[in-house]
Amino acid sequence: xxxxxxxxxxxxxxxxxxxxxxxxxxxxxxxxxxxxxxxxxxxxxxxxxxxxxxxxxxxxxxxxxxxxxxxxxxxxxxxxxxxxxxxxxxxxxxxxxxxxxxxxxxxxxxxxxxxxxxxxxxxxxxxxxxxxxxxxxxxxxxxxxxxxxxxxxxxxxxxxxxxxxxxxxxxxxxxxxxxxxxxxxxxxxxxxxxxxxxxxxxxxxxxxxxxxxxxxxxxxxxxxxxxxxxxxxxxxxxxxxxxxxxxxxxxxxxxxxxxxxxxxxxxxxxxxxxxxxxxxxxxxxxxxxxxxxxxxxxxxxxxxxxxxxxxxxxxxxxxxxxxxxxxxxxxxxxxxxxxxxxxxxxxxxxxxxxxxxxxxxxxxxxxxxxxxxxxxxxxxxxxxxxxxxxxxxxxxxxxxxxxxxxxxxxxxxxxxxxxxxxxxxxxxxxxxxxxxxxxxxxxxxxxxxxxxxxxxxxxxxxxxxxxxxxxxxxxxxxxxxxxxxxxxxxxxxxxxxxxxxxxxx
Length: 505
Known about the structure:
Helix 1 crosses helix 2 (about 35-40). The chain has 20 helices and 13 strands. Strands 8-5-9-4-10 form a 5-stranded mixed β-sheet. The two termini are about 35 Å apart. It has helices at about 10-20, 35-40, 45-50, 55-60, 100-120, 130-140, 160-165, 185-190, 205-210, 220-225, 230-235, 240-250, 275-280, 305-315, 345-350, 395-425, 435-440, 450, 460-465, 475-500, and strands at about 75-85, 120-125, 150, 215-220, 265-270, 290, 295-300, 320-325, 340-345, 360-365, 380, 385-390, 445. The chain is an alpha/beta fold. A hairpin with a 5-residue loop joins strand 6 (about 290) and strand 7.
C-alpha cells in the first residue's frame, strides 16, 4: 500500500491484531485480550507504544515480523541471474555504493544489512534478451549450481523454463510465508497449477511497481475544459470506459485548422499502440486463458471482451481521437504545451520522462469497463520481473530464507520510499496521488496468458489495434484458438508433471 501520513490509535490496534494473526505462534480466540494479541506480534515495549499513540504506516510496516530463524551462511555467494537492458536490470536489486539517491541507498542498505545478518554475499548478473533461459539451462545441465535465483522478463524465456522443467516449486521452499504482506499472491492464484508454482513476485522485485501501468492527465487542461473532479469519479466508481471515451472525444480537435491531425493539434488521449493496449483488456475484469480445476485450458472470451475490443477500435482508430506514441518513446507533444489531456505510462516513466512537469499532472487508474467490475485493474508489464528458482539449486532452504528476508526488508523501507518519497513527495505534490496509487497497486494483475506469451496470444490486442482494427475480432481469435489451446495445454501438462515430483521438503 502507498504510505499514509498517520494512523489513528484504533487503526494501530487493528494492525497489531493483524500482525498477530500472521504469526505462526498466534493462537487466539474471541476472548483473548488485546495485550495477549499484541505480545504475539511485537515486543511488550513496542506493543505499549503502539497502543497508546498513533503510529505511522511506515512504523506499522516495521513492526511486521518476518518470523525467520537465525542463520549463518559462512560467506556463501548468493547469485541471481536476470534479464537486463537499458530500462531494467541488476540495479533494481543490487548496487555497489551509496550515492545519496533514496532508492539506490535503500537497496544498498537492505543488501548490506542482510548480508551482515546472515553472513552471505549477494551478487547479480544481467544478460541480454534471448540469453537467460539458455544460460540457466546450461548451468542446470552442467551441474555447476551457478545460480540461486532467476529474475525473468516473462516474454524472454518465461514459458521455456517451465516447459523444460527447469524451475523449482515455490510451494516446496522452506522459510517462505505467502501470508506475509510483501508477497504478491495474485500471481500465485493465477499461475499455480495442481500444486506447482514456478514463479512468484514480491516486494524484492521493485520492477513490479515500476512497470505497473497507469493514466496521467493534464490538470490544467482538465480545469480549462471544465471536466470537474476526476478523482471523485474514481472514488465514486464512476470512472468507466464510456466516461473516459466521452471526455477524450470532446477534447481532440484540429487546433491549427489545417484540415489534418498531426503533432500540432490537440488530443484527448495519447498512447503507444502496443504494450499499453494490453491493460485495457483487464479493465473488463477477465482473463483470456483459464486453467480449470482439472488442469485443462480454456480460452475465456466473452461478449464483454469483444465489446471492449469494439470500443478500443473506436478510441484508437476512428476520428483521430488518439495520438500514436512511437514504441518505447516519449509523447511527441510535450506535456506542458496543454495539447494532450490523457496519456498512458509505466510508473517508471514518471521518474525518467515527467520530472519537470509533475506539478501539472495527476495520476489515475485505467477506468473500469463498466460499474459492474469489482475494482480498477492494471497490468504489470513483462519487465516487472517474476522470480524463479533453478531446479538444481543446492540449498532451497537458504534461498527461501534470503528471499523472504529481502522481500520483508523491501516492504518495510524500499517500497514505502519508492511510492511515497519518489512518486508522491518528490515529484507529484498532489494530495490525491497517494490514494490513486493505492488503487492502482491494489489492482495489479498478473495474467497466465500474458506471462507465458505462447502462440503470440498475449499480443492479439496489440496486433488488432496496431493493424488498424480491421476485420472481425471474433473470427480472428477463433483462428488462434486451436493452436493456442494446444500450446497452453502442453504447458499445463508439464506443470501437472512437476507437481508430482517429490521435492523432499
